[in-house]
Every structure is written in structure tokens, then in C-alpha cells.
Amino acid sequence: MINIFVKTTTGFIALILALTISTQSLGENTSPKKIITIGGPVTEIVFALGEGGKIIATDTTSKYPERTFILPKVGYMRQLSVEGLLSLAPDHIIALEGSGPDHVLEAIESVGVSVTRVPELVTPDQIVQGIDIISGVFNRTSSSSSLGTEIKEKLKQQLKFANAQTSRPSVLFLLNTGHGNLMTAGKDTAIDTIIRYTGAINSAADLKGFKPLSSEYMVSNSPDYILLSQRTLDQAGGVFELQNDPILGQLNAVKENRVLTLDGTLLLGLGPRTPNAIQELSSQLFKPVP
User: Omega into 90 within 30° of 0, i.e. cis?
Assistant: First the structure.
């Protein structure tokens, strides 16, 4: 049994290695033709650069644009497998920080497949940096400069609008982990950036990163608004069910239906659509007076 397993595994790796060497014989400076993208923001940037046609598979966090739904999935970005990735014979993998486990990506590199790692995208400057890194894979510096400049200019204008706000409501983000526990996003997260660029205040700014929420923290925090992904709100059963929740129902924001929603793909990482997310959230927070 062990011998059969060893022979099978060795044969699989040998086959993939042969395919990899064949692909790389095209030349190190040749733009890759078969890309696997890991991380929703990474996938969106590749499409925004006009290189989406080269993506052969994505992870399960990549849900935009619609074409990603028909692409093969290699699993959740933090639970990748060597066999799952190599079976698709990619010539390049672009992975967002946090993808892995690390030993999986290292094993991929050990057989000759290039892996480009993109730092976590939680600030406007990091969006531009991420675009530059990804465009370098395709030797498209001009496209990178154009896309990065466009996003940076939009964010600059939105920050100017945010700084001009005289009213700064507080917003608490809630994330359903799927196990009955709620988490929020503190500073150094994409959600914190999105909230601040609307002119609002992140109620969890005293925390760093994603943190579990206690009932005491939520009640004492008393935010002006609650922000959820549309999926989280749907899973909860809508605002009516939130109002009947023994903890969330105590919050004035929930009692008075001050519940904001955004597409979850806009919330968990910055990317080309970040200005859209900020604009959408801002329009909910600062509705024009009739």
C-alpha cells in the first residue's frame, strides 16, 4: 500500500514537473498564459488589467466579476493543496498575503511554478502597490500606471469629501463567521479604510484587525449604524430577526433600522471597486435631504 502511494505521488509530481519545464521553456520573460489567482482582490485586479482571459482557476473568495463563477476553484485561500494546484498545470500563481499554507506554496515553487505574493491590500497606497506588482507579472506597466492613477484620484476626491463632513456617525461592522460567532474589523483592515473614507468613524477603531465580538463590547459601543454584508444580513433573516436577537436587539441602531449593507466582495479587501464601495456606503450614510 505504501509503495503504491509513493509510486503514484512520485509519478504525479514527475508529470507536473515535466509540464512545468515545458511551459517555462518558452522563456523566463514571456508573459504567463495559465494563471491561478488566490484572493478576491487579486482576481479583480487581473481582470481590471485586461488579463482575465489567462486565469484558469481561482480560489473560493474570488467572486467578481461574474466570469469567476464558471472557473474551476482550488479551494479556500488558506486551505490550498499542492495536488489541487498542480493538477491544473499553471505557469504562474498570484496569491494574496495570507494564502497558503506556506509549505504548499513553497512546494509549488520547488517544482518550478512561479508564485507572486501580493501584500494585503488595506490602504489606498497598498492598492496601487498591488496593481504594480500584479501588472509586473504581465509586463504591463503602462496599464498599471493608468489603473493605479485612476483609483488613487477617485480615493483622493472621496477623502476630500469625507474630511468636509461636519457630522461623523459611528459604524460597527459585523461579520458572521458561520459558527454562531460575530466578529468585527478594527484598524488596519480594508473595512476600516472604507468606513473612514466615507467620513464616518469606525466604532471598533480601538481594536486591530479582525476580532471576536463580545455582547458587552457591542452594547457598550452603541454605534450609530451597523454595517453587514448583504449575505450576513440574509443569513440572519433580515432586520426583523436582528431586532429580535437578545443582544443585537438592544442596540439603538438595530431598533431604529439603521442597518447598512454592502456586497461582501467589496468589504474584505481593497481593489479596483473600492471607490464604488465607498460611494455606495456614503450614499447610505449621508442621504440627501428631500
Answer: no
Residue 289 pLDDT grade (very low, low, confident, very high; cuts 50, 70, 90): very low
* CATH number for the domain harbouring residue 9: 3.40.50.1980
Q: Which domain holds residue 33?
A: 2-118
**pTM reported for the whole predicted model:** 0.86
**70-117: pLDDT as tens digits:** 999 999 999 999 999 999 999 999 999 999 999 999 999 999 999 999
What residues have CB less than 8 Å from 166, skipping those under 6 apart? Answer: none
End-to-end CA distance of the chain: 75
Instruction: Give the total number of structural domains in the chain.
Output: 2
191 within some domain: yes
Peptide bond into 124 cis (omega under 30): no
Question: Residue 134 domain-assigned?
Answer: no
Chain segment 105-151, per-residue pLDDT in tens? 999 999 999 999 999 999 999 999 999 999 999 988 776 778 988 99
Q: How far is CA 187 from CA 94, 108, 272, in A?
A: 26, 33, 21
Return the C-alpha cell found at 56: 484558469
HSE value, Cβ hemisphere, 13 Å, CA-based, for 33: 10
Q: Which of 118, 140, 157 is the last residue of a domain?
A: 118
Give the whole-angstrom CA distance, residue 76 versus residue 99. 9
